[in-house]
Amino acid sequence: MDQTPCRRLYVERTLAVIKPDAIHKSEEIEDIILKSGFTILQKRKLQLSPEQCSDFYADQYGKLFFPSLTAFMSSGPIIALTLARDNAIAHWKSIIGPVNSTKARETHPECLRAKYGTSDLKNGLHGSESFHAAEREIKFMFPNSVIEPFPTREATEEYLSRFVNPTLLCGLTELCKHKPLNPCIWLADWLIKHNPNMPQICDGATVEEAE
After folding, report:
1. pLDDT above 80 for 211
2. Is residue 174 classed exposed, middle or buried when 0-12, 13-18 and 19+ CB atoms within 10 A define those classes?
3. Distance of CA 149 to the CA centre of its chain
4. Which residue intervals of the chain are DSSP H helices?
5. What is the rounded distance in angstroms from the CA atom of residue 49 to the CA atom of residue 54?
6. Could you report the per-residue pLDDT of 28-40, keeping only the tens digit for each?
7. What is the pLDDT of residues 118-147, one digit of tens each?
8. What is the rounded distance in angstroms from the CA atom of residue 152 to the CA atom of residue 44?
9. Beta bridge partners of 86
């Protein structure tokens, strides 16, 4: 019997925003999102003030279209969604297509911005550009979200070498010496008894207070 190795799935999150010009098509857009393999983790309908829009699009500050962008994004309600799936950021960007809806209709006629947007500014939808942008934008729209940062390989290796490997290596060495019938339970018990972070209690010993 052939055994197919399990492929590890890395789930990523991204922020999607249905803008004021496309909010009347929100149910249709959400249906497309679900059919594209995304899970909608969070959903919120809100209306941003011009000041909040300025904060959200802070990376665009100073560009000629910035005042028009903040005015448009604060002109009506929007729907913010946290989406999840493998390769979510790149996949959502490919679905919504180029920023300019007019050009998108020529080059990517099947994309969502070509279908729901009307111009470069009023392009119907927003998608995070990168992992760090998604992290910031999700926290902006959903302040109570908990997004754990991915540790670097170096940080992971340092953590394991300092706090895990020394004790685990001793435990595995003892395991090989004893060769118990149930090695997993034996090792679990050994690790609990030899946890270096546990306070050491000496039976029958008394500690005298210094005068």
Report:
1. no
2. middle
3. 8
4. 26-35, 50-56, 66-73, 88-96, 101-107, 112-116, 131-141, 153-163, 165-178, 183-193
5. 9
6. 999 999 999 999 9
7. 888 899 999 999 988 999 999 999 998 766
8. 32
9. 11
Closest CA to 110 of 94, 87, 89: 94
Helix 165-178 with 183-193: angle, nearest 10 deg: 130
Output the six-digit token pair for 156. 């992971």
Q: What residues contact residue 55 under an 8 Å CB cut-off, 6+ apart?
A: 140
For 100-110, how does the pLDDT look when each residue is reduced to its tens digit (9 = 90+)?
A: 999 999 999 99
DSSP 43: E
Query: Which pLDDT value is given to residue 95?
Result: 97
Long-range (24+ apart) CB contacts under 8 A made by 104-112 are 112/29, 112/32
Q: How far are the Cα atoms of 4, 181, 190 from residue 184, in angstroms, in the given order?
A: 26, 9, 10
Q: Kindly list the catalytic residues.
A: 126
98 against 160, higher pLDDT:
98
How many Cα neighbours within 13 Å face the side chain of 11?
Answer: 11
Query: Is the overall model pTM greater than 0.70, yes or no?
Result: no
> Which pLDDT does position 158 carry in this prediction?
82
As a residue count, the chain comes to 211
